[in-house]
Amino acid sequence: MSTSSPTEQLVELLASGDEKDLAEAAWMVGGELANRRHDTVRAVRRYLDGPAAGAAPFLRGFALALEQVTSGHAAAEPEADELAPIARAVQLRAGWRKVIETLAPGPMRPSEIAAAAELSRGRVSHVLAALERAGLVERTRSEGDGRERWAGLSPLGGVVLEEVAHARGDVAIDLDAAVVATTYMLAKLLSRGRASRSSLEDALAEHLERPAVARIADVALRAARDAGLAVITADQAVTLAELHLRDVLGDALEHALDPDGPAVPVIDLARDCAPTGGLVVVRSESHRQRWDIAIARRRLDDLRLLASADWLTGEADRIVEPDRPFVLVYDSPPLARAERVTDSPARALLGRAESVYCYRVPGTTLPDGVKALEVA
Amino acid sequence: MTLHAPRVATDQEIRDVVVAQPRRGLPELIERALLASGALLRGHFSLQVGTHSEYFIRFRALARDPEVLGAIAEHLLATITVPTDAIVLVPESSGYFLGEAIRARAGITLAVARTDSERRPARSLLHGGLPAGRPVIVVNDVVTTGASLEPLLDLVADCGATVAAALVFGALDGTGFRAMLGRRRIAGDHLIEASPSWPVADPARCAACAAGGPPLLPAAELN
Ligand SMILES: [Zn+2]
To answer: Does this complex have an ipTM over 0.90?
Structure first.
């Protein structure tokens, strides 16, 4: 076997199906990937197309998993210059760069890295996990000292460090890549209801040096609007107002943790407008943890929160008992609009509600039959 | 909208994959609640630590019953000594409900930490305070090894307060959680953990992924 190529060896190991050979195969694939050789994906596919057909389900599953891993790595590597994107990724992420530069002299404990790089322990642990996944850092548990795993640069990490050091001072940001990443980040923030220019900039600051943040945020916000992303519509005023609404609600709910904090309109609604013996049901995706806690904290027993997770887990019927009258309150105009037209589980609820309310963004209209709740 | 819903685990599955903390049995009320609440879901979930799991405990479903929540709080409190000036620290997540129940039973005060955009506990306070020198009981609902508690432990240290104990309802890797407490010399405990038949794996080794489904759901979004 010593004369055959790694690809042939790998197919032989997989085909043998012996437990030790499989372990050997996995180890080999790891080694090949660490050396940035991607022939292994062809080997695994050759096995899957041929011998795997009659193999046990476990073996086939094992090979499929290997194929996933190797093809994932292969796809992540552009052919022309495979080092450049990694080096750029490191350059773009201030945290990554600081940690890699800190590790230049040799392996260290995470606590030492945190002190030297002036980063929080939590941040260092996130960065190390990401760098380990990217193959730039290797972690070992030292013998005498079980408390912390040491982290050191992998051979690839060493090469990237050199590359980054050469490019130092040159703030070469790949604008396209950064905008795509930022647009994705914005979409993620929107889905969690925390999107605003400042929250975007805060999230960006995790990855970029400050001077680049404002520039990238500008371009990304424009790109997101042009792409018609989420609530970013042609009417930018509406969009910003809706983003503003989320911020206002988030703040009000934050204070709702204090029993004597400022009023949240829906809480007054619960006191004044809930049907006799009935409920006010808040339909929220953006701030649901905050709503849930605020309701519990103020002991608002006839106010209930309903999130899509409650349908997934079958709890919706426990939260809104089928025989109790209720009014439904949306905390987001896009959600109120969407659930009237899509075939969502909320639609049945809309039919049963005595009234439907929604927070209103100044300068916009709500769907017919939805009453406005004003935000201060 | 097609929802690829996970399903509620069967009684047999719950008995197979959930076990009591090895030094104690599981109180009967809590066992019954686990079976009746639908809190244990069967599906394909990505956990915050990055691993994939075929089960997920939606603590919020358990916490809706004040009697069950109270029992969990009491059983956890019985494992530690609570200083009279202690503060309970919880993240703004479903762990809040356990923290509040513990606070109410022990007659102490509560502080709430922010969570980040990934719903992980962050290192800053949303509500309440952690005055220097005060003992703090860090609480959360379900953890894997407890690594997610680290920002909370760091926050306590930042404020000059001291961690008196860490209490969680579930630690999937119970051995890992107890080892973490031991390493940090923190008192604390958990009531349940995952048995060896609870499938948890790295994404590359996940049987559900290799079999092409069911679709992966981020566990943090469900609580
Ligand atoms: Zn999986």
So the answer is: no
- State which of A235, A270, A286 marks the end of a domain: A235
Counts of helices then strands in chain A (DSSP H, E): 19, 7
pLDDT tens-digit map of A198-223? 766 776 666 666 666 777 677 666 65
Of A194, A292, A312, the CB nearest to B5: A312
pLDDT value of position A54: 73
CB contact under 8 A, A68 and B119: no
Crossing angle (nearest 10°) for helices A57-76 and A19-34: 0
Q: Which domain covers residue A103, as residue numbers? A: 94-165
CA atoms within 13 A on the CB side of A290: 28
CB A103 within 8 A of CB A114: no
C-alpha radius of gyration, chain A, whole number: 27
A126 and A46 assigned to the same domain: no
A368 and A261 housed in the same domain: yes
Instruction: Please give, rounded to a whole number of angstroms, the shortest distance from the CA of A235 to a CA of chain B.
Output: 27
d(C-alpha A241, C-alpha A375), whole Å: 11
**Per-chain mean pLDDT for chain A:** 72
Residue among B117, B126, B183 whose CB faces A188 most closely? B117
Using a CB-CB cut-off of 8 Å, the residues of chain A touching B33 are none
Which residue from A minimizes the CA distance to B58? A313
Nearest to A257 among B50, B127, B205 (CB): B127
Evaluate whether A88 touches A174 at the Cβ level (below 8 Å).
Answer: yes
Query: For chain B, which ranges sit under pLDDT 50?
Result: 1-3
Domain contains A150: yes
Chain A CB within 8 Å of residue B15 CB = no
Report pLDDT for A334: 72
HSE, CB side, 13 Å, CA atoms: give it for residue A81.
8
Q: Is the per-residue pLDDT at A337 higher than 70? A: yes
Decide if A88 is inside a domain: no
A29-38, A244-253, B165-174: which has the highest mean pLDDT?
A: B165-174
- Architecture of the structural domain at B7-222: 3-Layer(aba) Sandwich (3.40)
Residue A227: predicted pLDDT:
44
